[in-house]
Amino acid sequence: MQQVRRRKGLSKPDRSIGDTRLSPAQYADLVKSSGRPAKAMLDRFTASPKWDTLPDGLRRIIIRDVVEKSRKAAKGQMLRTRPELLQAQILERVKRRQGER
Hints:
Layout: H1 2-8, E1 16-17, E2 20-21, H2 24-47, H3 56-81, H4 83-100
Antiparallel strand pairs: 1-2
């Protein structure tokens, strides 16, 4: 995946979920839980003989889409399984709304 990131211009995942900054341990979990499924799916795509026939631009779109969806799913999973993150998200929303008044 490191080679794909260098060649295709992918960045590392955000260190925040919404306005909530992740701890180093939480960030490591996010990287693992988003990277493993993305890599598995991209491995399946790139192993296909059809992969090499796709134009570079389309391959970049596919890679970016797989990575973005995997990151989004991992963030959602973290919010469901880590109540402290969900609570922090709710508190940030309340603060923003109170500041708007």
